[in-house]
Amino acid sequence: MVEKEVEKLLRGGANVAAVSAPAEVCLHCGERLYSAETVSRFQQVRAKLSCHEVADLKLMAQSIQNCCLTRKAVCRNLSPNQP
Asked: What is the C-alpha to C-alpha distance for residues 38 and 54, in angstroms, rounded to an integer?
């Protein structure tokens, strides 16, 4: 095991945050072990993300999902009303 600074993706509701955190990392399998303090921090960030309390976070990207998108709409430049 070696101590490293790692990036962890945290999801809360529809929001995702990338946070840096210290972890003990297994050199054989890559498994990460976090301290109780770090896990508590993760829980706080997830709670903020779930409540959309993201003012203190930096927006890095935006992801958009459209579950109703069809192949036909994609082939018509995302405009399903075109003939």
From this structure: 19
11-63 tens-digit pLDDT: 888 888 899 999 999 999 999 999 999 999 999 999 988 888 888 888 877 66
Starting from the edge strand earliest in sequence, which strands make up the sheet with 32-33, in order? 2-12, 15-25, 32-33
In the block, residue with structure tokens 């903020």 = 48
Where are the chain's structural domains? 2-75
Burial 52-62 (b: 16+ CB within 10 A, else e): eeeeeeeeeee
pTM for the complete prediction?
0.68
21 closest CA partner among 47, 1, 48, 42: 42
> What is the 8-class DSSP label of residue 36?
H
